[in-house]
Amino acid sequence: MPVSAYDFIRKKRIGNTFSSDEVKEFVEGYLEGTVADYQMSAWLMAVNFNGLSDEELFAYTEALIESGERFDLSGIRGIKVDKHSTGGVGDKVSLVLAPLAASCGLVVPMVSGRGLGHTGGTLDKLASIPGFRTFLSEDEFKRLLEDVGAAMMGQTGELCPADARIYALRDVTATVESIPLIAASISSKKIAEGSQGLALDVKVGNGAFMKTKEEGKKLAGTIIGVTARFGVRTNALLTNMDEPTGKAVGNALEVREAIDCLKGGGPADLRTLALELCSKMLCLSGVEESRARENAVSNLDSGKALDKFREIVRGQGGDERIAEDYSILPQAEARVEARALDNGVLTEIDTYRIGMLAVELGAGRRRKEDAVDPAVGFVIEKKLGDAVKKGDLLATVHANDSKKGETVAEKLEGCFRMGDKTSSDSRLIIERIE
Fold first, then answer.
1. Model-level pTM?
2. Residues 223-249: pLDDT tens digits?
3. Residue 353's closest CA among 247, 212, 252, 206?
4. What secondary structure does DSSP assign to 149-162, as a single string?
5. What element of type H or E holds 225?
6. Which of the residues are catalytic?
């Protein structure tokens, strides 16, 4: 006899476990409408507190996959390898990495998500490119992979539809940080999209969902275990999110910064992450590590990756002129400066709060139905360890409402703390997990 939604929620709340069939029935019930949004939200909160057993996790992941179709990419020549980040502030690495990896000969089937909580989403960044189509049919997706070598899209109604609906609920019910829920969400999409390998970027720090190295290692290990169960090889990097990646926070601003990187410039941390993750992706396809690094550096510096970016944008209906003319991207009407309140060394950045201030400005969502303003955000001028004088420019706020921009700029100033020296772990790449 099937377990009722009420009993399913109650038993998880008190720490009980369920069989694979029971987990799948609950997810199927949610898709069919016999389990309501508020009941799924209650179960997500119970999982947030009590976790999932290995059997429940595999069953839940499989239920997400089986809720839709799996892409069959076997007819497309080449090794299919994707990358996924667990989410951070200013994390535009995918915009650089997908064209870079494709220019190195990989096939990159990248199914991305929108902003979640205080973190930005690759889908929202791509949507800020005029004309860029983020939703493709399976046939269009396959054609772009064959012709271009990479495609960057959102979840279709056929690909893990249960995850798409649950993902939106997690965003607004404070259940984003749950390790099993993150692991199942990431793994299901990468398995369903047809990837053979996955390079995972697990963010760790005050601006990440995983606050500590130990939590990051646990999440990486969980995803590696789940994807291996379904035949996908995965390696992982633990990377620092005690400060935003690069300088730009906000969708169109981050697209511009990613293009700077593809031109051989851009912030050093963005370039380092793109090269390291591209090397990891190439290694998953069988390329020797030192050669993988050489290929990645060569293609980024020679302009091949930028050419591939243009191909991707053109192939998905976007205006490829943005690579030369940034004014084509959405522009905010007002600029407001945030300046340092004290002298000293920048010892701490409240990266989580910066992410939430970006949401307040309109760059992200408070509710799943909220619209995103692609033009707004910040350009941050200081990094941890920098010497700062009172009155120095910390960041420029890009806003479409000058009064709101001034309010956010004042709050932003409080996100930067000065001292004698920084005590945080300054390593960009904290650990590599094969």
1. 0.90
2. 999 999 999 999 999 999 999 999 999
3. 206
4. SEEEEEPPSSSSHH
5. helix 213-229
6. 84, 163, 170, 185, 189
